[in-house]
Every structure is written in C-alpha cells, then in structure tokens.
Design a protein that fits this description.
The complex is a heterodimer of chains A (87) and B (188). By secondary structure, chain A is mostly helical. Chain A has one domain (2-84). Chain A is built from five helices and no strands. Chain A starts with a helix and ends with a helix. With 188 residues, chain B is mostly helical. Chain B has helices spanning 13-29, 32-48, 59-80, 121-132, 136-147, 152-159, 163-186. Classes of the chains: A mainly alpha (87), B mainly alpha (188).
Chain lengths: 87, 188
C-alpha cells in the first residue's frame, strides 16, 4: 500500500503540472500531497507553477482575442493561382 | 428526404474560406508564413482531388479535413527532424536517484518576484523567447494545451500521441520554461 503512494519528484511535478489544467485525478492529488510532506523543493515548484500558470493565462487571453487574417495581397495571389491551376 | 448535393465552387474559395483556414492553421503551427503555405497546399490538393468530392459534407468541412492532414504531415516532419533543440532534463532518469531533481536544476526561490509585475510587456516578450527556445514539438504541444486551450483528447487525436505522452511533454516544457524564466526574469 505504502509503495503505491510513494512517488518521485519527477512524478510529483508531473501531477502538479496536470493539476494546473485541473486534470489530475483524486488519487494523484493524494500522492502529490503526501509527497509534499517530505519535499520542500516540490512545494516550491508548485507555488511557482501557479504563478507561471497566471502568466500563461494572461498570454492565452491576449492570443485568443486575436483573429488571424490573410492579407488582401496574399488572397489575390491565391485567387490567381487557383484560376490558373491545371489538374 | 433528398438533400441537394453540394458541388465545389473553387472560384469562391478564397473569399469564403481563406481566412478561416488560415486562422485554423496559424493557431496550430504558430507561424504565419508556414500557415499561408499550408492553406495554399490545401487549395491545390482540393483542386486536384475535386472529383473525389462526394458532396456529402460542406465545402468548408471538406477543405478543413484536407488542411488537417497537412498540419499532421507538418507535425510528423518536425517530429522526425534531426538536430532539433535539446530538451534539458530536470530529473535523473536512471540510477539510484532516478526521478529526483538534478542539483543544478532545483528551483530557486524568486527573490524579486513581487517587484516584477505580471502585466508587463517585457515579461511577455521574455516568455515568448523562452517558449521559442523549446524544441519545436514541445513548443507546439505546450501552445496548443496552454495558450490555445485545446482539450487533451483533441491534441492527442490531432498529433497521434497518447495522453501520457502529452503529459510528459507538457511537464518537460513547463519545467524548462520555469527554469528559463527563473534565469532570465525572476532572479535576474
């Protein structure tokens, strides 16, 4: 039983990353919290990871608000190419 | 009920679908020129295989399905490319320390984190630099998951990877980004 609950720092931080997207399972969260009891480094990683997520979120909002268009010149070129296209 | 069969009208493609296809591609490959090429290839492939169009789906759906394949081909290409940027490992991957932090990669506390506000253009620029330093495939999966916020399942389907592959990539990308931001921003 105890062996099943023991995870490495690599596994712990993977779960931590997963939970940033709310996709860590309940069992994974238990293992993560047990790991925190003995590991300061991963606790620090988790705190910083939340901060990184805020940063990513801000970037995401900025990017998603943007709709990308082809320029009119590019469109004209494409139109010409389609007209001249021979199968 | 008989549905009217849809026929292709390539002369209208650019006006009707070019922006839609372009946006679809940019979001996935994060490169305007490359996206433009993919859209162009899609239209050409559409013209070539127009006779196979059965009129069951709309023109747009049909064109998107072609573009999707082009995007997947691109992923495959970058995946097999040799000499791509190296992934710095943060954990020992064998020996008795397997899974533990490598000393020089251990997170340091961010002393001036509070002074460095989140809403800052310089900060965003630095983040972009760090993301661009990731191996192309990692940057791509990271962007799709975190910036474009695609569902895990959708990314796995599009890239042909399993969800555990995806989490390994996300994990490595995030630890590398954390370290990059620590070195160049928070403790700089």
């Amino acid at each position: 039983m105890f062996k099943k609950l023991h995870i490495t720092c690599n596994e712990a931080t993977t779960i931590c990353d997963k939970s940033q997207y709310k996709e860590a399972s309940f069992f994974e969260k238990i293992k993560l919290n047990l790991h925190f009891l003995g590991c300061k480094i991963c606790r620090l990683y988790t705190n910083q990871n939340k901060r990184m997520s805020d940063l990513f979120k801000a970037k995401s909002l900025a990017c998603k608000g943007k709709i990308n268009h082809l320029s009119e010149i590019d469109k004209e070129v494409l139109k010409k190419q389609i007209k001249e296209f021979k199968v | 009920m008989l549905q009217e069969k849809i026929t292709l009208n390539p002369n209208k493609w650019i006006d009707n679908y070019a922006d839609y296809l372009f946006n679809y591609a940019v979001v996935r490959v994060n490169d305007g020129d490359l996206a433009k090429d993919l859209v162009q290839e899609t239209f050409f492939a559409g013209l070539k295989s127009g006779k196979n169009f059965q009129g069951k789906a709309s023109e747009r759906t049909w064109l998107i399905s072609i573009l999707k394949r082009k995007v997947i081909d691109h992923y495959r290409k970058i995946n097999s490319k040799k000499g791509q940027a190296e992934v710095r490992m943060s954990f020992y991957d064998d020996g008795e320390n397997e899974g533990s932090w490598i000393e020089e990669r251990v997170p340091q506390s961010w002393d001036n984190a509070s002074e460095k506000a989140i809403e800052n253009q310089e900060l965003k620029t630095q983040l972009d630099i760090c993301i661009d330093n990731l191996p192309e495939k990692y940057a791509l999966v990271f962007r799709m998951k975190t910036i474009q916020e695609f569902e895990t399942e959708e990314i796995c389907k599009e890239l042909g990877i399993t969800s555990s592959n995806l989490w390994v990539i996300i994990h490595r990308a995030r630890t590398q980004l954390r370290k990059c931001m620590e070195d160049n921003w928070f403790n700089n």
